[in-house]
């Protein structure tokens, strides 16, 4: 009986590991494709628009400044749009500027919609690029969900390195949600699949009509074995 139980447990663990690998491979493939398209938009289309904008700025419109101003305004809007699309597809410059600066840029871009406070405890160390990209994606998805659904006016993002893991806490003062009712939504699924892809554990803490909070712990050496680790 013990042998059968052990075999079943081994099969289950092997299947779980296989599913994790599939999720990771799928996310990595998606990120590579997103990166390819984002770089193309950022480097090629963005540069072409900038060159065209400079050319237009030096164009002699024979005194018709209104036409020049209107075209230049449209060109600037196109450049901003290309940059926004590029960043939404993949954080192109994250590897060079780091996660914290990229989050600050996200906060600045959303400042007209909601107040976001970022607190990074001194001592935070740069992580593997894949890990930081996934963390950025999670924060991006969370803030988007809060703005769309929670009626919140404030979001707090807290990041701290502990001896064995990095903690990321995202909370808001919105109306919260019932996890069982929304867990099948793409936003929640994306967040949880990205969390799994970096071997992290997470926990949702929600008080309907009051607030919501997402707690994530990212281990340095994959030492977390189960979701209970988030409560320790």
From TrEMBL:
Keywords, alphabetical: Kinase, Transferase, Two-component regulatory system
SUPFAM superfamilies: ATPase domain of HSP90 chaperone/DNA topoisomerase II/histidine kinase
UniProt-listed GO biological process terms: phosphorelay signal transduction system
Domain Histidine kinase/HSP90-like ATPase: 132-184
Protein name per its UniProtKB record: histidine kinase
InterPro entries in the record: HATPase_C_sf, HATPase_dom, Sensor_HK_TwoCompSys
Reaction(s) the record says it catalyses: ATP + protein L-histidine = ADP + protein N-phospho-L-histidine
Example of a GO MF term: protein histidine kinase activity
The keyword Zinc appears for this protein: no
Protein species of origin: Chryseobacterium piperi
Entry EC no(s): 2.7.13.3
Pfam families in alphabetical order: HATPase_c
CDD domains (alphabetical): HATPase_UhpB-NarQ-NarX-like (cd16917)
